[in-house]
């Protein structure tokens, strides 16, 4: 998959060389494509369930709004508790593919668990927790595999391609669920069985096509905050395990004593606190425009469509102009989205602008933030560090959604959206102060 032409040092491995001309092509490695395919298939499975779960619980099982809120809270927050565990285990045993595969398998089994749980709310909550446990365990090892399979100057491109494939699955999942329901009637069991089969296919693709990058003798560990050179991380492998020993628990806590890593995690948490849940954004749109509930799932489809169209171009832009400016621009788009929800714009312009900007926000922040984090974190603890960033954001999302809900009740939805926009602006300023002094973009010489 050829994306751009760049000059490469002669110290790069022969597998990246394109031939006699001396010009080399920046590749998205086969591992990144394979992991993207796994994420695409898994997201089809996951979004099939996500699209019908509210209808299944509230209309099918007659759950009260409070009970549904508890289940939805478990669905949102369970990943935060397990991401660091998954990242630490992957770093300790040096088997990122194995840990990621375990997480994908757990999520697949959980789809069948929804059938076995019947009408028991505690069992349904437990099954959903297992599904989210699988997501929490696999996320950091998967992103670490992408980082280890990519030269540092191409991380934005690699994560952009991966997130594009991932968002294709998020776009297709609700449509597949709707097709199943149209084919068999309102049989939620058919959706769960189909979702399990799709998730099992993703595990097979992971086992057959994703490769664990073997550790090699280091070429020298870069200082925290400095991007490693292509020689140090040719094809993403060299320098991964600086001493070959097992990672100790105390090293995880020591990671937060490293100033660049601490600033990065702090900024990620603050950005998460300024981000409310997707459901609130879509509920505000539905409420303001009085959209029929049957069209409600298509809000997520619209966001996913924008995301999948822009994830790769924005990843390429991040490699060219710098990842921090792109991340900041993404959160600026989020702030404008909240302003639209609080302002006078109405009708189709509001729907189109809000969903477009919301998709831009995800495309500019989801993978690009991890691409920004990769070179900052020491290679030995990179998976754990990525997990800390993801866990901090997941917990912050949970807190921010609760606070936004309280604001909705106290001030009304439009006023709460306005306050959220102000919070985004304040957090962006703090993020610049935290990250800009130590930020140094990876530069490339374009031939």
From TrEMBL:
Residues 216-243 are annotated as: Disordered. One of its GO terms (cellular component) is plasma membrane. It comes from the Bacteria. The chain crosses the membrane at residues 25-46, 66-90, 167-184, 190-210, 264-283, 295-317, 324-342, 348-373, 394-411, 417-439. Residues 31-440 form the Major facilitator superfamily (MFS) profile domain. Keywords: Membrane, Transmembrane, Transmembrane helix. It is found in: Cell membrane. Pfam families: MFS_1. It is a multi-pass membrane protein. Residues 221-239 have a biased composition (Low complexity). One of its GO terms (molecular function) is transmembrane transporter activity. This is Sugar phosphate permease. It comes from Micromonospora avicenniae. The lineage of its organism: Bacteria, Bacillati, Actinomycetota, Actinomycetes, Micromonosporales.
């Amino acid at each position: 998959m050829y994306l751009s032409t760049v000059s490469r040092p002669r110290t790069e491995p022969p597998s990246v060389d394109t031939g006699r001309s001396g010009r080399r092509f920046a590749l998205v490695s086969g591992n990144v494509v394979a992991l993207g395919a796994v994420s695409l298939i898994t997201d089809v499975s996951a979004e099939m369930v996500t699209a019908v779960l509210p209808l299944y619980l509230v209309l099918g099982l007659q759950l009260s709004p409070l009970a549904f809120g508890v289940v939805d809270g478990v669905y949102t927050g369970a990943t935060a508790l397990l991401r660091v565990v998954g990242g630490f285990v992957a770093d300790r045993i040096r088997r990122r593919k194995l840990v990621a595969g375990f997480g994908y398998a757990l999520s697949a089994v959980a789809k069948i668990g929804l059938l076995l749980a019947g009408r028991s709310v505690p069992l349904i909550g437990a099954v959903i927790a297992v599904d989210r446990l699988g997501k929490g365990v696999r996320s950091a090892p998967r992103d670490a595999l992408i980082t280890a399979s990519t030269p540092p100057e191409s991380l934005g491109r690699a994560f952009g391609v991966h997130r594009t494939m991932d968002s294709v699955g998020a776009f297709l999942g609700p449509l597949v669920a709707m097709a199943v329901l149209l084919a068999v009637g309102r049989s939620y069991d058919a959706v769960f069985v189909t979702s399990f089969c799709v998730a099992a296919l993703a595990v097979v693709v992971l086992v057959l096509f994703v490769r664990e990058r073997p550790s090699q003798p280091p070429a020298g560990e870069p200082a925290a905050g400095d991007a490693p050179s292509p020689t140090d991380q040719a094809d993403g492998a060299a320098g991964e395990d600086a001493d070959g020993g097992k990672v100790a628990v105390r090293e995880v806590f020591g990671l937060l004593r490293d100033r660049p890593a601490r600033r990065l995690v702090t900024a990620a948490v603050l950005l998460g606190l300024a981000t409310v849940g997707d459901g609130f954004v879509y509920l505000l749109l539905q409420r303001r425009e009085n959209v029929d509930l049957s069209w409600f799932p298509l809000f997520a489809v619209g966001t996913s469509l924008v995301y999948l169209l822009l994830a790769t171009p924005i990843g390429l832009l991040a490699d060219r102009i710098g990842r921090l400016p792109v991340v900041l621009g993404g959160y600026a788009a989020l702030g404008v989205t909240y302003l639209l929800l609080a302002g006078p714009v109405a009708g189709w312009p509001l729907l189109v602008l809000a969903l477009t900007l919301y998709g831009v926000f995800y495309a500019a922040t989801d993978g690009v933030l991890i691409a920004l984090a990769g070179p900052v974190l020491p290679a030995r603890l990179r998976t754990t560090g990525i997990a800390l960033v993801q866990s901090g954001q997941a917990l912050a999302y949970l807190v921010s959604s609760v606070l936004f809900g309280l604001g909705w009740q106290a001030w009304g939805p439009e006023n709460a959206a306005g306050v959220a926009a102000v919070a985004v602006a304040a957090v962006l300023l703090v993020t610049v102060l935290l990250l800009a002094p130590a930020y140094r973009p990876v530069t490339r010489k374009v031939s």
